[in-house]
Amino acid sequence: MSEQENKSNENAIDLGSEPMDNDFDPFAADEATGDEGADSGTPAETAEMAETAETTEQPKEDNTEMFANIEDAKASGKVISIVPAKDGKVYEIRNTEMGKFVTTVAGCDLLSDMKTGFTPALPLIPMYMMTQIVTFFRHYIDNDAQQEVLVNIYWDKQDKTFILDVPEQIVTKVSVNGQKNVDYAHERYIHYMDIHSHNSMKASFSAIDDADEKATRLYTVIGNLHKYFPDIKTRISNGGKFLEIDPSEVFEIVKSPFPNDWKDKVRFRDSHKNTDAKITTKDLWNKIMNRIDNYEICA
To answer: How far is it, in rounded angstroms, from Cα 159 to Cα 89?
Structure first.
């Protein structure tokens, strides 16, 4: 062994030769320094401390209240406030010592589940009335006149029936200016719908319609009246806020009876492919040749 190796062995520390101190406590340093990570309490005390900390960080949900505006929310002093805003969204506001947190609300128990739409309180408008209206509209596309016209639909609360009224109006190809009939200004009548034509143009609500149709009621436009089946669109105006709906929600659908044995002629299958009859290339070729032979015989 070399002299250098002897010196290395002399300087080496023999860990195995040092006796272990049986009284050594690896957590003693934490206790002595008061380390926050030390678990010095009982399980029950630890759980109570955790619950206290969680309560401090997260306000109780019963401290939540809904307010009509931000001013009332501020005046209440509530930690958590639910407030609707002008943008149509609902916000949750949390006031803490760190600051004010504001986010949109999702899944708040104080809010109801809502869905846009229209739920009629009146019967469907009868199909014969729609037929009369379309016939009237088509009269004004004959001879290339192409005028828009208007029909108002009222509900008679006393007689429980719909009334069609054609008001006094001044029309062009792209506009109609109608005057409301004073005969139906009585509270007995509900102005239920305005329905106007778009002659040979497509059925769509124009910027002019948006400006005119501010009253809360139903509105319908019928276009492409030169076709066998015209186009129809219906919408609601909720104080000038529009939403298109399916016309079948307010108009009666045509239903004509048909023979029951027609249904016996209809069969169903899961796929459009004809799995019952497989044809090979050879069979296809034979069919083609047979048709050619038959053609030559007939010729």
So the answer is: 42
Looking up tokens 């006393």 gives 158
Helix, strand or coil, per DSSP, at residue 217:
strand
- Report the alpha-carbon distance of residue 162 to residue 195 in Å, rounded: 14
Task: Specify whether the CB–CB gap between 242 and 231 falls below 8 A.
Answer: no
AA identity, residue 135: T
CA-based nearest residue to 247, from 116, 118, 115, 114:
118
pTM > 0.85: no
The tokens of 37 are what? 């990570």
- HSE of 81, CA atoms in CB hemisphere, 13 A: 22
Rounded to the nearest 10°, the torsion over CA 176, 177, 183, 189 is 70
Task: Determine contact, residues 177/198, Cβ cutoff 8 Å.
Answer: no
Q: Which domains does the chain have, with CATH numbers?
A: 59-104 (no CATH), 127-249 (3.40.140.10)
Would you state the structure tokens that stand for residue 150, as one six-digit string?
Answer: 């208007």
Q: Count CA atoms within 13 Å of residue 217 on its CB side.
A: 16
- The CA distance from 84 to 72, in Å, is 12
Q: What is the pLDDT of residues 99-154, one digit of tens each?
A: 889 999 877 777 888 889 999 999 999 999 999 999 999 999 986 778 999 999 99
- The C-alpha angle with vertex 42 and arms to 40 and 45, in degrees rounded to 5, equals 100
To 5 degrees, how large is the angle CA 53–CA 54–CA 58? 125
- Count of residues for the chain? 299
Residue 215 in tokens: 């009253």
Distance, in Å, from the CA atom of 261 to the CA atom of 152, rounded to the nearest integer, reads: 42
Question: How many other C-beta atoms can be found within 10 angstroms of the C-beta atom of residue 273?
Answer: 8
